[in-house]
Amino acid sequence: MKPTDQPLRDDIHLLGDLLGETLRAQEGEDLFQMVERVRALSKSDFGELARLLASRPADEALPIARAFAHFLNLANIAEQHHRVRRRRDYQRDPKAAPQPGSCAAVFGELRADGISATQLFETVTSLRIELVFTAHPTEVMRRTLLQKQRRVAQLLAEREHRDVTEELRREITSAWETDEVRRQQPTPLDEVKGGLFVFEQTLWDALPQYLRTLDAALREHTGRELPLEAVPIRFGSWIGGDRDGNPNVTAEVTKKACLLSRWMAADLYLRDIEELRIDLSVRRGSPELERLAGCTEEPYREVLKKLRDRLRETRDSIEELLERTDRIVCPPLMQRSDVLEPLMTCWRSLHETGNGILAGGRLLDMIRRAHCFGTTLVRLDIRQDSARHADPEPDDLDTFRAIEEIPAESLGAYVITMTRNAGDVLRVHALQKRLRIVPLFETIDDLRNAGQTLARLFADDDYRKRIDGRQEVMVGYSDSAKDAGRFAAAWELFQAQERIVAACREAGVELTLFHGRGGSVGRGGGPTYLAIQSQPPGSVDGRLRVTVQGEMIQAEFGLIGIALRTLEVYTTATLGATLQPAAEPSPEWRQSIQRMADASARAYRKVVYERPEFLDYFRAATPEVELGLINIGSRPARRGGAKKGVESLRAIPWQFAWTQNRLLLPSWLGVEEALSDWEAAAEMVRHWPFLRSMVELIEMVLAKTEAHIAEYYDRVLVPDELRPLGEELRARLSRTVDAVVRVTGHDQLLKTNHVLRRSIAVRNPYVDPINVVQAEILRRYRQSGDESLRDAFVVTVNGIAAGMRNTG
Q: What would the 3-class secondary structure string for 633-696 be?
């Protein structure tokens, strides 16, 4: 019997062979043989590997690093395709149990647990989940290469039906011959276009497929169909509206971001409408339809033709506006109803004339898209630091003027970064009235005061009248973790959410929590289902907003099959947390975890904030400084641009830098001390989803660390006087691994997750050589300042990011 991952192994083997053929054909036999030698050494003798690569000139080492980076990207594609294949296999086999976490599986489990059909139906159809895409600088891959990788994934899917070897060879060759390096820093509008790319490529098609899956599960387990207007998941964006620390995001950029989104929506509807007109060549229509169509033999086509023409006018007028945003031009289609009304007329007519079966095809999909995407595709949030509102500068006032000019359907919320008190919110309340206001609590102190801040807000009669009984509150995972370490920050966030829930409940205000999660565990990342299920009781209640940041957009939505799985998991996890929230932790557990968190925070801060040599060590042992010199994102790496210390460093490059040398320190430092009472911790892990989730995430991070790589960076890059700190941190890492293994009761990390364990084991020999090349390039660059080495550095950053998967 073949192992379930045999098809994955076959795909990786094929892609690896084709890459090898490409190296031979494009670069010659010598490079191929050197790559093979490096691969063998990486698995057997790291010391010899390091000596071999460090002795090579940069122009010889770089192609080797590129080869391993390309293999890792191909392995990622194969793994994503395998996830899609496994999902499809579950669906194809009528005898197989539903895939865990799917709508079919979770709905069945909830019914078996006593949830009534009515309660299940009403909860599902009232879910309000919004996924908010952001443009944080962790997506290091050029969009050109992402498109090529998408093509490889499509070919792997077609491989099951025909021979695609030659086409794969061409795509791999094309990718090899493509420059990985961004020659210019991306502008905010470049990032907007990159964010819209995923809607065009996957989400436009995935959304109706997801809703059909949801409808089928509802029919099976409640006997009722999904209402047309029910769309549990919608999408938002910060891309082009997030001006916190980014002077490049101006009022003009925000206007154009909204226009680009509208242009994309109109263009995508136009593609649909042409296919729908082919479907609906029906002659017989209802009186309502015939009045709308006028005198014609094909009333449906005529109605859709009028909608098509208005969509074209809309797209054309938006193109004019993009050229000159100071012009006042009103596109013909401005509101969701402009698209929905003619479609619903067709829907009603088909059902009234006995052609309802035709309504359930493309027309149904287009109606559901209109309910989800409207005419704007996404709603854009505006985000700004609280300090900028105390004495608004001219560019801030331009933002508020833009908010008044932009159509309301294009905009979402006004998010106030670093909210410290009620005054920070009331100032924005005075400055603008159109957008709902979302305070973002980020630091440990602000999280602790969040409940009091909200209580003071709700006591303000004018503000209370404005919110009309609804408040959205955002909690940030990044800065709190940078403040106190991941473990302590997680407990602070848990308690902050409890206080926020209590404050809203006492005031009779309906709460939506907005989670600012990043890709890495150190910034709140990790498996979605487990993260949502481990939230405090009452904090979800059918409503959830979550950021999808940086490279996670491609990881979670880059392929249609992956996007479908992601949408299902968000739905079922939110549903489960609503209908079966976790039990309240006992007072004894609260006392225990508070002691654990305090010990963890003290240990973390003693190293990061109290060791005078720590900052110098960090900048020497990681490529933190050099990351700020390359064209990853449009936002500066530091708040205010000055190098003042860890406090001034943004949480994303803080995480990204530690990922590059594979020490991943922010995600585990302090955990050893937290788990010192391992018996108490083990008991809580077994019975409390919150702590179980935390320990499993830390276990995953520890499995990705490589102490010998971090030690190599120290040896090559760190001055002698700072190396004892590196030795101490690696010793802490070893003890942390021991502590986690002891608490989980396993004899190795990821004992029960053999898929991830094998994936990491397979990747490591391919990441190690890239690390060696990066360390050597950094050494030479720091000594010589030779700018010609910068491209080589970028290639290594891409390669390590591909190997580590979640970077920032």
A: CCCCCEHHHCCCCHHHECHHHHHHHHHHCCCCHHHHCCHHHHCCCHHHHHHHHHHCHHHHHHHH
